[in-house]
Design brief:
alpha/beta; Spore Coat Polysaccharide Biosynthesis Protein SpsA, Chain A; three-stranded mixed beta sheet
């Protein structure tokens, strides 16, 4: 069985030293496997590590445009067209040894377009507060196999029929291209399968709070664009609910600042309620530090979404009315 794995790299040597390429090699044993790499101009030992590990079973494309969607389109364009399955593995992801063994049988269902394994931040126990926060979320304790719950391109497999028609929207420069591919699959009549069982895939990066806030803001912007592009198939996740949450959250922070400056304690109540909501999302609700981080993440996400709404939705709405 022929499998083509596509990977985007940029100075990824430190991730490779932690076992990313070794894990892919182990998972691909027994398959006719080829690695397609789109590199953004690495100046470390990234490319040497790839050539050493995969040799003539790898193909490296130099593409310096800093645009995730365009890079993924480049990978698809340069991938051989005769593979049985196509796979996305991010350069900071260690996949489990049974990655393909678990996912490939799911495609016996002809309606499955993509299948993926959940990835968590850092090895256990996580050292960063960002990693600890995501491990504490109740929603991340779920196990089993979930239908139409995925969309990530960090470690996923897709059938060739989908790979041949998939095209990422180039407006997803820094985030959102994963969900773009998911909704494209849904529009073509496919579904996504998310395997939540152990062993999970591991993000070996250790993000700082600032890095994660920037990332989550970009995901908020991308959500607004995804809602616009795929509004016909996205149900019960429309723009009105997210926009209302944005207004409430941003207004709560404004009232918080007002309450501090004006010494008006009641103005702090909305933000306190939002903090309690974040606490209830955690396994250990008394972890105030993690709840505060969750509150900050929600602020940046919804601020990004608001910006995305103004950037993408308002021009569309104005054009539609004309």
């Amino acid at each position: 069985m022929k499998i083509v794995t596509m990977m985007l790299t940029l100075n990824s040597e430190n991730f490779f030293k932690k076992g990313v390429l070794d894990a892919l090699t182990r998972a691909a044993m027994g398959y006719d496997h080829q690695l397609i790499v789109v590199d953004g101009g690495s100046s470390d030992g990234t490319l040497d590590a790839i050539r050493q590990k995969f040799g003539d079973k790898s193909k490296i494309i130099q593409y310096t445009m800093r645009n995730l969607a365009a890079c993924r389109n480049t990978a698809l364009l340069n991938a051989p067209k005769d593979a049985d399955f196509y796979c996305w593995i991010d350069s900071d992801i260690i996949i489990p040894e049974n990655f393909f063994f678990r996912l490939l049988p799911l495609f016996k269902d002809s309606t499955v377009g993509t299948a993926e394994i959940r990835a968590v931040l850092e090895f256990d126990p996580p050292r960063s507060i960002v990693g600890r926060y995501y491990r504490e979320l109740k929603m991340n304790q779920e196990k089993g196999v979930k239908v139409n719950g995925g969309g990530a391109t960090v470690c996923s497999v897709m059938r060739p029929e989908l790979a041949k028609i998939l095209h990422f929207d180039n407006r997803f420069r820094r985030a959102g291209e994963d969900l773009d591919s998911h909704w494209q699959a849904v529009e073509k009549g496919y579904k996504t399968i998310l395997d939540l069982n152990d062993p999970l895939a591991i993000h070996v990066r250790k993000p700082s709070v600032i890095e994660e806030l920037k990332r989550i803001k970009d995901r908020g912007i991308a959500r607004a664009l995804n809602l616009l592009i795929h509004k016909k198939v996205i149900k019960n996740r429309g723009i009105s609910g997210t926009l209302a949450a944005s207004v409430i959250t941003l207004a709560s922070w404004v009232l918080f600042v007002y309450g501090i400056l004006a010494a008006y304690p009641l103005a702090l109540l909305p933000l306190v309620l939002l903090l309690i909501r974040q606490m209830l999302k955690l396994r250990r609700f008394w972890r105030i530090d993690l709840a505060v981080l969750g509150l900050l993440l929600s602020l940046f996400y919804l601020a990004g979404f608001t910006y995305g709404f103004l950037k993408y939705w308002l021009p569309w709405l104005l054009t539609k009315r004309q």
